[in-house]
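Everyone, describe these structure tokens:
***
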Amino acid sequence: MPQIQSIRSRRRNGESIASIARSERVSEPTVRKYLRVDDLSARPPVRRRRGSVIDEWLPVIEGMLAEDRETWRKQRHTATRIHERLRDEYGAGVSLSTVTRTVARLRREAAAEREAGFLDLSWHPGECQADFGQVDVRYRGVVTRMRHFVLDFPYSNIGPSQLMPGENAECTCQALRNLFEWLGGVPERIVYDNAAGVGRKWFDRIRLTRLFQAFQAHYGFEYTFCNPYSGHEKGAVEARVGAVRRRLFVPVPGVWNLDSFNLRLPDRCLELGDKDHYRKGESQTGLFDEDRKALLPLPAKPFDVVTWTRMKADKYGNITVQGSHRYAAGPEHAGHEMIVGLRALEVEILDAEGKRVITHPRSYGDKPTDSGDPSSQL
């Protein structure tokens, strides 16, 4: 995927096909093939693909270590506890010694990177910063803690937002897609922190989640990561997250349908910018028009934000996701291998041949849920 992105980026910059082929060490037909692709969305994995055992679970381990940074030091994960969770919640067949070495390496790299220098950022039209914040909403009558994703444009100080149930790769990419379509274009560059839904920066190496990697190549924007523990490097979006929370989520709003709520949310965020820029003295909405003029065009086809994986249904025909959430495929599929598509708000289940079986609303949180329980559908 990085090579595909490089080929498409070089071509957008006017480089010839022959020159791209020489630089990337591929044939010219290969270059033309990747330039013709108009949709980089993931496809259902009808054929099983095997990778390195520990590499498959690196994003999960990194997510656990990221949670530890916000947790009391006496309640953080040990390597043994991470191994137990990988085994019990995800069914990972990795040894304790392998997990211990991996955790030690990731912690050493994180500690070394804390000494890295700060980024000197200069903001131009079409560049933005992205971050999540936490908010409580009354979702279908129950007070629920959700995440609001903010895409802030420091040049104009305008930050449209989307409400999501989590911060995983599916929620991140879906929020970005919604905002790209509202904007009518794609920002040239987006700055992130080390968010589990996007990827990680270790020294000079960037490791993206698979879904975000394909999403970024599909839309063609550039990305930059802040140094760990360096929220000041994206201070504009940090402030915007708090401003959106105070202005649009106080008092606690009632939400019945997330799609409908998110459809109106960017326009409400734009109304907050109906004033002069705090430094430039010009209208923020006027500066935002310059941001929009600098956007890249949208691709011909939207990206399908979904992560496909294979899972085996239990003897009742249920699929278990993230260790505690069960989704019913039907008793006729008991013991069969199924293809499961994880979206931000839905879980789609296909049979082994890729035929759709059923779609369920996706559950979040540590509380176990069961789509087959009639009370969960009321």
